[in-house]
Amino acid sequence: YKTLRLVLGDQLNLQHTWFSGKDSSVLYALMEVKTETDYVWHHIQKVCAIFAAMEEFANALRKLGHEVCYIKLDDLHNKQSFQENCDALIDTYQVEEFQYQMPDEYRLDQALKVYCANLTINNSLVDTEHFFTHRNEVAEFFLGKKSLLMENFYRHMRKRHSILMLGTEPVGGQWNFDQENRKKLPKNHKPFPPLLLHNDVTVQHRRITATGVKVIGTIQANDFQWPVNRQQSKELLDHFITYCLPLFGTFQDAMHTDEWYLYHSRLSFSLNTKMLSPMEVIDAATEAWHKNRITIDINQVEGFVRQILGWREYMRGIYWMNMPDFETMNFFGHERTLPQWYWSGQTKMNCLRSTIGQSLQSAYAHHIQRLMITGNFALLAGIAPEQVDFWYLGIYIDAIQWVEITNTRGMSQYADGGIIGSKPYTASANYIHKMSNYCDGCRYDHTERATENACPFNSLYWDFHDRHQLKLREHPRLKMVYALWDKMELNEKEAILNRAAHVLKNIDNL
Ligand code: FAD
Ligand code: DLZ
Ligand code: SF4
Q1: CB neighbour class for 354 (10 Å; exposed up to 12, middle 13-18, buried from 19)
Q2: Using an 8 Å Cβ cutoff, are 372 and 436 in contact?
Q3: DSSP letter at 279?
Q4: Which of 260, 342, 362, 367, when mutated, tests ligand 1's pocket best, judged by the most ligand atoms within 8 Å of its CB?
């Protein structure tokens, strides 16, 4: 072969120009390697899904007439790193040029740059042809501007790509309909049953277990529900557009013990592995709205478009703007160890038991569960951000560092000191009770703050704000919080702080 082209596990973009014409002098390589399976404790479903999707992709390429080398984790000649496997292929086939697509992850981007610098053959890098923006576009957009507000970038993207626009004005007369999107799930309301794909990933599962990869979570390998190819990803997209989009915005923030995804799309795995492009997902949603305006309101569609056109592109840009510094940011100096029950779900706090239990079972939790349950608790309790990142980067099906760390360390933990979020996302039981049914079945009392049965979130909420008042008191959006705290009787404050100290001391047994 003249050319070796490396395809990473999150670069499964069949529409890439690489694949538009056949060339028998080009060898495509996909590889399962220990350097990727071992950098965190991944959920077993995440590793199985990536491996199965990589294999499906390799087969799809072969069907199109391309030459493909697929290295499995337990292959005897597998050297267990991209670089060493590529060296071996270059050697075996006397390859003259090495090519790869821009990695989305800083670690691999650096590693492959170093690899290429040391190669004696020609090498080149191409775009993944997936995102709306290039790596530095968000940084360029905000250059010279005072704030990095996502909303400003989002409006720019709406105009630039003419999405949900009427000339220069947003359709519906507003850019953002978030205030209509905060409903709790009504009693007896049943969302449409999920589309579950019945894949068999038994062989991948066996391979991962046999090679001793440390994984978390559970799996039903012979009835696996995540999409592993483009066709299935499109089925999931169709299902979402037909059954979930009409109420996506309305119940976007709702949580319920019996519903693990409500009206969310579960498209993040297909998007992050590039089996679907963000453009086709947005097109499908906006087209459905154009055709069905009687049954689909603008707030549902705008809310969905904002997540993909706004947040997803923005997070990627913020990542490239701030890496590698982002990885070590710790604005609050948090150092506490992550409680053991994050790995088992074994806690009496119903919201956390339900969210973590669901995550271990399905490798999925929706945004508000990630932000306001597991993330909120970790922030209030002062958990070390690197431990929070380690957990999030492993447990979710869609976790790839560029979108995991910006959401976790940035949006959720405020460890970036406000690059992404305008204030820390903290909440007491009041919010959780308002948006879910978790508190109804809980051993703790969501109305109590300082008693033995008091919900841990309530004392931790005040303890957090008290502990960090030097950093937060002057924040314009926290004035109300501190005004309330200052007005509280001294003995009440003391009781709350004592309760928080007790909670933190017994954090592994809550
Ligand atoms: P939907 O609610 O249906 O949204 C549609 C799509 O919008 C998603 O598939 C996703 O591509 C995009 N999107 C929505 N919110 C965000 C966001 N905040 N940032 C970037 N894209 C967004 N998302 C990941 O893809 N990978 C992660 O590792 C990840 N880690 C997170 C960690 C924390 C602490 C938090 C608070 C959020 C995280 N998110 C992450 C963002 C978001 O929670 C997930 O994208 C979403 O839950 C995926 O489910 P869905 O496809 O059903 O999303
Ligand atoms: C997450 C992951 C895992 C578990 N395994 C592999 C693998 O064996 N081979 C591979 O090419 N990619 C894998 N991935 C995805 C990568 O770790 C990484 O997150 C992305 O390629 C970064 O852009
Ligand atoms: Fe969670 Fe507190 Fe409600 Fe229990 S009472 S479910 S711990 S918020």
Answers
A1: buried
A2: no
A3: H
A4: 367
Whether residues 310 and 288 fall in one domain: yes
Same domain, 175 and 79: no
Q: Is 388 in the pocket of ligand 1 (CB under 6 A)?
A: no
Going by alpha carbons, the residue nearest to atom 5 of ligand 3 is 446
Q: Are residues 195 and 214 in the same domain?
A: yes
Q: Is 404 in the pocket of ligand 2 (CB under 6 A)?
A: no
| Position in ligand 2 atom list of the atom nearest CA 82 | 11
Please, what is the average pLDDT of the chain? 96
Indicate the residue type of 403.
V
Q: Mutual orientation of helices 230-239 and 278-291 as an angle, nearest 10°?
A: 30
Predicted confidence (pLDDT) at residue 129 exceeds the cutoff of 90:
yes
In a domain, 222, yes or no: yes
pLDDT exceeds cutoff 90 at 15? yes
> Which of 292, 322, 352 is a domain's end point?
322
Domain region containing 119 = 3-126
**In this structure, are residues 252 and 303 in contact, taking their beta carbons and an 8 Å threshold?**
yes
Same domain for 54 and 161, yes or no, is no
How far is the centre of ligand 3, averaged over its atoms, from the C-alpha of 413 (Å)? 20
For residue 17, how far is its CA from the centre of ligand 2 (angstroms)?
Answer: 22
Cα–Cα distance between 485 and 462 in angstroms, integer? 8
Compute the distance between CA of residue 153 and CA of residue 497 in angstroms, rounded to an integer: 40
Does the C-beta of 308 come closer than 6 Å to ligand 1?
yes
Does residue 328 belong to any structural domain of this protein? no
Same domain, 239 and 281: yes
Q: How far apart are CA 335 and CA 387, in angstroms?
A: 9
Residue nearest to atom 12 of ligand 2 (CA): 9
The reply to whether 305 and 170 lie within a common domain is yes
Last residue of a domain, one of 107, 126, 145: 126
**51 C-alpha to ligand 2 centroid (Å):** 9
The ligand 1 atom at the shortest distance from the C-alpha of residue 252 is 2
Q: pLDDT tens across 413-448, in order?
A: 999 999 999 999 999 999 999 999 999 989 999 999
For ligand 2, whether the C-beta of 32 sits within 6 Å is yes
Q: Which residues contact 14 (CB under 8 A, 6 or more apart)?
A: 57, 60, 61, 230, 275
Distance between Cα 311 and ligand 1 center (Å): 9
What's the gap in Å between 378 CA and the centre of ligand 3? 14
